[in-house]
Amino acid sequence: MPNLRHRIPSAVAAFLLPITLVLAQSPKTKSATPDTAKVDREYALEATMLGFFAKDGARNPTLKANKGDRVRITITNGELMTHDIALEKLGIKSKTLQEKGTKASITFKADKNDTYYCTVPGHRAAGMVGNFEVVEGSVNDATVAGQTPMKNGQPLNLNFETGTLKDWTATGDAFSNPVFGQDDPSPVHEKDMHIGFHGKYFLSSGGTANAKQTGTLTSVPFTVTQPFAAFNVSGGALQDTRVELVQASTNKVIFHSTGQGRATLQPVVVDLQPFLNQDIYIRIIDNETGISQIPYIPHDKWAHINFDDFQFYATRPTFPNELKQKDIIILPPLDPVLNAGLSGIKAAQAMTLPNGFKMTLAASEPDIVKPICFTVDWRGRLWVVESHTYPVPAPEGQGRDKIFIFEDTNGDGTLDSKKVFIEGLNLVSGMEVGMGGVWVGAAPYLLFIPADFKTDKPLGPPQKLLDGWGLEDTHETLNSLRWGPDGWLYGTHGVFTHSNVGKPGAPDSERTKLNAGVWRYHPTTHKFELFAEGTSNPWGLDFNDYGHAFITACVIPHMYHMIQGGRYQRQAGKHFNPYTYDDIKTHADHVHWVGERGPHAGNFRSASAGGGHAHSGAMIYLGNSWPQEYRNDIFMNNINGARFNRDHPARSGTGYVVSHKPDFIVMNDSWSQWLNFKYDASGSVWVIDWYDKNQCHSPNPDVHDKTMGRIFKLSHENDKWVQVDLRKASDMELVKAQLNPNDWYVRQARTILQERGPNKKVHKALKEILTQNPDATRKLRALWALHVTQGLTDKELNDLLSNENEYVRSWAIQLLAEDKTVSPETLKQFTAMAQNDNSAMVRMYLASAMGRIDPGQRWDVLYALVQKAQDKDDHNQPLMLWYATEPLAAVDMKRALDLAQKSKMPKHLNYMIQRIGAINTDDSKKLLKEFNDRVGKLEHSHENHEIQALIAKVLGE
After folding, report:
1. What is the DSSP letter of 502?
2. Rounded to whole angstroms, how far apart are CA atoms 477 and 95?
3. CA–CA distance from 736 to each of 268, 626, 730, 782 (Å)?
4. pLDDT digit string (tens) for 614-665?
5. pTM for the complete prediction?
6. Angle between helices 877-885 and 840-850 (to 10 degrees)
7. Which of 23, 143, 393, 463 is paired with 277 by a 20 to 30 Å CA distance?
8. Digit-coded pLDDT (tens) for 514-564
């Protein structure tokens, strides 16, 4: 199932708790690690995703030592994530930690300034980086003394050292008894928390024990007598837990600060120069209850604020643990969710729909439970997999999953007919129908069940077409099976499951490794290949009007236009090709979560942005009855947000930029979990809902309630119910269906034509559409149908390379390279197109094709493509060209270096230097040294200096 979190067993940790990295300085204390060598200065760090934090709360503090000091930095992992610590210049790194509470260290001699950071991909960019400085004299910074504000000649009780609320006025219950002292932590904070208050007392609006209390505390007004002030604050980084400074004459808030999701008090510095000699007052606000409306998520213990020690300063004070506003990542309040645990009928009624749409409950428990995947057949019937084994596969031969066939026989929107197709399947996660049977993804197998569609019964037992699909993470197995426009069966696969796929009994040399990406299998040639690799845990795949694949993903950004041969941003792990060097990032200009703490922290607080990071299903609406504005938009379910997201892809360069449109539906029900949705012959959309209190994958089978499930029908007032059976249509009727404005007819008819095989009359009729229809999408439909019915020769495809339409030319390129070989004549035309074609899309398809054919045939095309300066800033093309160019280093590294020098693509030369260096032979070293000498003789420039530095690094000099 879709990946809802970064493999954190506790959903609470992932969803609600801020992630920190705590750093405590304790010079000359004994290390807690096995490294017992004598050191002069020691630092202890607790590591999580937000950065490096001192015990006193400082984020990424500057660590200091005197020159020559022996320094040890010890990290403690603060969460179930992968972390380490490294020094950039020294090039030393600790061991990698994965479990919470585990420790590792680095020990080194302080010689020069350096940078410490976490080497795990993405963690440095997320903020896990700080400075190490070599200093003379004292390592500790001195702080000037402050002055307590006065009123009527008496110091105000702004540090609570009276032990009372003197000089303050409280409302609500959060500040009914808020002054604590003597003990650290206080009795209202957890025992492992460090408050670090000054003097005897500090103030808290309930601590972690009473976080749901709310209220306001307001000080008496007082005059600003110094240009700067500071106060100590901690607690929630939430909009409604904050300290405000208010101008008394206008009641205008002139400064505010929250905590940063930690208990330790930190000083906040305020510039009050514009308000000298004016009266202000302090207002401490806690309007955050932290009460979760999500049934299985506990209340947020950070829904409180701690405060202490307001002081004036004559000059700006310096604190080593100053809480800076740029370091605070504030989250909005929890989203309201109106319902949970509704009946099927009430769930349909509770949804908020656009005008003109209605939702009908088509089926619910006990008629359907735990629908995990489905498809719509040529009669508009629903084939639905009922999952009983997930999340733990049953022993071989003891599977309990079932496939049902549902049908609405009278058009009222309810599925009044139900029959069993097969029982006893095991851990099914994907399913498609057509080409003589039912195709089932059930790790470790891709199965084919031959079927008699007249009786709707299997013609025999399931056949194991492929095995080797991994089971490491059973919600990241093969899924989202769907027929592609080219006649292949496509599917997706998650990043934390590691597969080695091949025909049963095949050796490793005949298998394909994959973990994260899009794969495809041909139903008649039985070829299997990885179409594109990367992303996270995609659980949604569809094709637009131009045959371009899009997937929806989780945890990392959610939207990708998948290009054949592309390598995409990964949630974890490395690309199989070590020379990838960089990958294609999301095609969306947005994410569906708020804040910068990462995707999990935004869950249940991100309704304004789309609901959260976890997505399931993908549907590019190509029906004909909904308003035109929805056509070619992509829809996906946002699981944490209980809402149906809608994104709009717009052409840009070689691909698309995908923008967020207003959410299409809000379910208003926290148990809602739509897994997939598809439109039918009427243009209506069928939805399967894995209705469940728990939204997180867990290997514990008892976590999920397996008694519930729903199927809904989403329809527009323009939809008209039809009864149809395309398998009964004649060949010419199926050809005519390629012109239907509803793509359901197009796809179903194409698959049936593919199953029926080559037919000269069909080919002639399709070629008339291809040549005469002015609409590019209709030309493409004819082209795809010709391809799947074997109706095109290479000559005819070569002729299409000069077609006036860029999409036709592009697809002709892909189909010519389908078998990974091209004729000399085709290659000659590819070269001419690379030199002269004015379409960025066409040039991208050429780059993709080059990645498929023999490297020795790529030179001329790539020489032309890499010199197209107009593509240098394109989202996809520079990297698609690198993926095609990289293998040339092993063919002829001198020529490959020459090609890289001529390339206008950013970083191509740098990448090729690294690639040649990786060959690591005497010849490769000699070539790089000769090139380095030539660069050194050129006019000095920053670029030349970078190249020389890179060569030196590659050669280890």
Report:
1. B
2. 30
3. 71, 22, 10, 10
4. 999 999 999 999 999 999 999 999 999 999 999 999 999 999 999 999 999 9
5. 0.83
6. 20
7. 143
8. 999 999 999 999 999 999 999 999 999 999 999 999 999 999 999 999 999
